[in-house]
Amino acid sequence: MVTIADVAQRAGVSKATTSRALSGQGYVAQATRTAVQRAAEELGYIASANASGLATGRSQSIAVLIPIINRWFFAEVLQSVESALLAASYDMTVYNVSHNSANRERVFDYFLLRRSFDAVLLVGVDTRRSELDAVRRLGVPLACIGAPLPGIDSYVLDDYRTARSATEHLVTLGHRRISFFGGPAGHTHDTDPESSLVHGERFAGYRDAMIAAGLDEVLSYVPAQLTIASGLAAGRRRLAHPEHPLTAVMAESDEVACGVLLAARELGLDVPRDVSVIGIDGHDHGEAFGLTTMQQNPQQLGAMAVRDVLARIAGEGQPLAPTPVSAEFVVRSSTAAPRREDSVPRQARLTDTGGATRR
Amino acid sequence: MVTIADVAQRAGVSKATTSRALSGQGYVAQATRTAVQRAAEELGYIASANASGLATGRSQSIAVLIPIINRWFFAEVLQSVESALLAASYDMTVYNVSHNSANRERVFDYFLLRRSFDAVLLVGVDTRRSELDAVRRLGVPLACIGAPLPGIDSYVLDDYRTARSATEHLVTLGHRRISFFGGPAGHTHDTDPESSLVHGERFAGYRDAMIAAGLDEVLSYVPAQLTIASGLAAGRRRLAHPEHPLTAVMAESDEVACGVLLAARELGLDVPRDVSVIGIDGHDHGEAFGLTTMQQNPQQLGAMAVRDVLARIAGEGQPLAPTPVSAEFVVRSSTAAPRREDSVPRQARLTDTGGATRR
DNA sequence: CCCCCCTCAGGAACCGGTTCCACAAACGCT
DNA sequence: AGCGTTTGTGGAACCGGTTCCTGAGGGGGG
């Protein structure tokens, strides 16, 4: 391995000058600098990150904490973060801190400490108070992606508005019996008040849109994990129910929505004539399924978060609180107006009092 | 930050002894060792990876090269690799070396060199000769996952056998007009003879099974990228073709297979009565789609590869060449015997000569 | 009883960079 | 010409560990 001493010798200068010449810090005569650079080039010199990190305290690498890798949103974020970091000559070290991962604890009290990361990115975190404190104590720039955390720059979709818009789309088409398929069952840390709010926000958006449309009587919620399989299972159960038919499904994620679409086809229901389905995310599969959705851009979130922490590492104070980004409405073939007879409100059937009373 | 000198002082011994006591190397009296450990514990001491790496040359971190993150197989591998590494106190640094990534070149001639990785994992590589040489020159243990590379321990599915078995399943059910949906179009490095062979292997397995069954006359190949969207598009084109109907599709991947299933439903074809579909992979979505498939286990591959390189880092010479693992046959509802009239060989219709001549 | 070997511990060198500080030369100004 | 400032360079300390080497003490064997 060629060291800085080799370069120094070849260029006929000292280690100190060599270091300055290559890093661009301090006074170095132009001629000397060129000579050093040429020597380094010829020897194929590459500064050891270990040595340089030890001396400066900056490691040129950042840690990414992520609860799961094999899921659309997270993989997209990871991809864009990696790309943005490499472009700035930073390494990306990934820690999977899933809810039940065996190594989770050690990430916070060992791995993050032994290597001095220049920043930490929290992707879709589901962090306990103590863990969050441990990360804060590192004293390096932090940013989170996908789920907001108090006091930390958060790059997130505006889940509430997005879910509300999606629901309003269905309402506008004339739907009344719209059900929400999704979390939060089993998705949050029971013990942690600060855990991810995504599920709650999306449901809240749905709920408020329904209430605003005077449909609070028909608010309904079908539990589903955020996977196709779970969406399918939920769809089978709910769509087959002859007593309380739905005309539309507001799915918490595109994966759930795709599952519901599969269930509908299985049951011989025509989409969108018998049932409309809208999702949230902009998952790759959406197009193949003809799914109408609110499309977010995880890659953009990742890139923005990286830009943020990099700027703060460089010392450019950036106190601005990032604002939630909004999703893009993508209309495909899974939503349409309900069949004629279904667009008439059916509260009479569903309640004893009759009429559209608001509570 | 608390250093080893702090611990030494508190325990009343020298840095040297402290280091030995904590690392377990060399002679240390039991009493001293306990005292040092207690001091370290009380101070919350964690050795700096930078300093330790600089001194020993071992960095306790390994690099993972992967062409894409957001795809089932790769994400699964990444997840298992991360988990196995953390269990052994190694960090995982991820480099995305996709075909057209802007940073690809710098990964091989800069990033891999500046940090001294203890091993490199190549996942589904698509490596040029020069790049491979660069990796080899690192002089650290290597392993590849998902696609074999000459002279490197490879943890891969036996693609040929798997595809052949899948095809044989269809043949056994009585299918004759079976088409292969998949690569390699646009998937290999045109300039590189050593690039990934996955696509070719799977096609070869299909081809040989067909030939062995005397069906070489009806060999056919429908190009598709390995995505649902591409499988859907290919399915639409091919399944709608009234002149040359298929009774079965052998898809190169589950994602393609799922796309084909969507196409079939769109076209009003009954699966499996009108057309059977089999995939390869064991993708999460397979279950929701009722897809019959050859299920491989990427997590297992990742774990095995990590065990391999870790053992070699530890100096346990392990010259054994890993053997390709085989997939598990999972029967679901997308395959069945063809309709009666279709199970009769139709070579007469497809060739001028009539009869089942073998070329 | 003497000698050798094994155990234990510390000083110091070392890993490969960065940076502080001292010093010299060149430059600009009055 | 004299002096302060800017520019350029090198020696040496330092970052925080690990390891070599030396030496002291203790135990066992001849």
TrEMBL record, chains A, B:
Region annotated Disordered, chain positions: 333-359
Superkingdom, taxonomy of origin: Bacteria
CDD domains to which the protein is assigned, alphabetical: HTH_LacI, PBP1_LacI_sugar_binding-like
Annotated InterPro entries: HTH_LacI, LacI/GalR-like_sensor, Lambda_DNA-bd_dom_sf, Peripla_BP_I
Gene3D superfamilies per record: 3.40.50.2300, lambda repressor-like DNA-binding domains
UniProtKB keywords: DNA-binding, Transcription, Transcription regulation
Record bears the keyword DNA-binding: yes
Classification via PROSITE patterns: HTH_LACI_2 (PS50932)
GO molecular function: DNA-binding transcription factor activity; transcription cis-regulatory region binding
Domain HTH lacI-type per the UniProt entry, residue ranges: 2-56
PANTHER family assigned to the protein according to its UniProt record, in alphabetical order: LACI-RELATED TRANSCRIPTIONAL REPRESSOR, LACTOSE OPERON REPRESSOR
Protein name, UniProt field: LacI family transcriptional regulator
Natural source organism: Klugiella xanthotipulae
